[in-house]
Design goal:
The protein is an alpha/beta fold. The protein has 11 helices and 17 strands. A 6-stranded parallel beta sheet has the order 12-9-8-13-16-17, with helices on both faces. The longest helix is centred in the middle third of the chain and has 16 residues. The chain is globular, with a radius of gyration of 22 Å.
């Protein structure tokens, strides 16, 4: 296999402007969830902080968060709603080293770069080949492949089967979605429909547009999705495969979800925290057919992971039939380590499954 992770080269800290840079300015939090005035707003790029004369790189980052100096001479990136009293928050506006903060964007060689404005007429053959090689590499090297899915992905029989096969063969390590995706996948397993449409023939079934509500009602009666599956009436589907394989699932709802299913997060802050736990482990993230969850994930997930001085990129893929959708995700990622593919998401999933060993 030809795939290799890009090499990370740290900054040359012997440069005068970094050697002579001051330590960061720190201010303590006075009230939970409230950052001190002038707090640094983080970006998705690697940012170094000078603390006690040493340049420190957080293990990972997120966009528009606070940087907190910890007692062991490390820096943690924290959503400012999660700040606690006495947290030592780094202050500053400049990221050129003059305030002890240095934004570094040139560390990786050979990172994928998305060309802005790629259209449906673009050729994506090389992108698919790179993705196959990357996913095989991650599987063989204990990576964490996270899938972020919208409901359109499970409206098709072949796609549900392909996703299940990918989960069975080790190419799915976590799933993030909303209420609708999980509902319609489970509906397909119970009624062979998605929003009342046959998942194989795509024909609308008379009086079956309530099937998704009946499915939700059954899940709520059972008490949980696991307990509903234990009853044995749902024979297949991506959700079933993930739960059978103990693959972590995070379902975060929107403003007015039907039901929703048990285990769907109602409280958005709790839901974001649960998503962050997953993205903190991710090495590859693949987003399909959901602007809401894709952009949220793009904001939460780091562009890199640092572990014992080894720094590697976190790869991000956005796939949608809409150019608007993939462009929105690219902007949220600051165009770092992201690839976009404009295509039918069902075709994408089936192609990926057929080309992986």
């Amino acid at each position: 296999m030809s795939f290799q992770l890009p090499k990370f080269t740290p900054p040359d800290f012997s440069q005068d402007f970094l050697t002579n840079a001051p330590d960061v300015i720190i201010s303590e939090v006075k009230k939970d969830g409230v950052a001190p005035a002038g707090f640094l707003i983080t970006s998705i790029s690697p940012e170094y902080f000078k603390i006690k004369g040493q340049w420190v790189l957080p293990t990972q980052t997120s966009i528009e968060c606070a940087a907190v100096a910890r007692g062991n001479n490390t820096v943690e990136i924290v959503e400012f709603r999660n700040l606690k009293v006495l947290d030592k928050v780094i202050l500053g506006n400049s990221k050129d080293g003059s305030e002890g903060i240095y934004k570094y964007t040139n560390g990786f060689n050979n990172l994928p770069k998305v060309r802005r404005g790629r259209s449906v007429e673009s050729s994506f053959s090389s992108d698919y080949k790179e993705l196959y090689e990357l996913l095989e590499y991650e599987k063989q090297n204990n990576g964490c492949i996270v899938w972020v899915l919208g409901p359109a992905v499970v409206f098709d029989y072949d796609t549900r089967a392909a996703l299940s096969e990918l989960a069975q063969t080790g190419y799915v390590n976590a799933l993030m979605a909303g209420n609708a995706m999980a509902t319609h996948d489970l509906e397909g397993g119970l009624f062979q429909t998605a929003l009342g449409q046959n998942i194989y023939t795509q024909e609308s079934v008379v009086m079956r547009h309530y099937n998704h509500l009946d499915l939700i009602n059954e899940a709520r009666r059972a008490g949980s999705i696991d307990e509903l599956l234990d009853e044995g009436d749902i024979k297949d589907g991506f959700m079933k495969t993930c739960l059978d394989k103990n693959i972590p699932i995070v379902l975060v709802g929107s403003i007015r979800d039907d039901g929703p299913l048990p285990s769907v997060y109602h409280n958005i802050s709790y839901g974001l925290d649960a998503m962050k736990e997953v993205t903190d482990k991710a090495t590859v993230i693949i987003c399909l057919a959901t602007v809401l969850h894709s952009v949220a994930t793009a904001n939460l997930a780091s562009s890199y992971r640092a572990d014992h001085e080894k720094v590697r990129p976190v790869y991000f893929y956005s796939i949608d039939i809409s150019e608007y959708a993939v462009n929105q995700v690219s902007v949220a990622r600051e165009y770092i380590a992201i690839k976009t593919i404009v295509t039918n998401v069902q075709d994408f999933v089936v192609n990926v499954q057929k080309n992986l060993r």
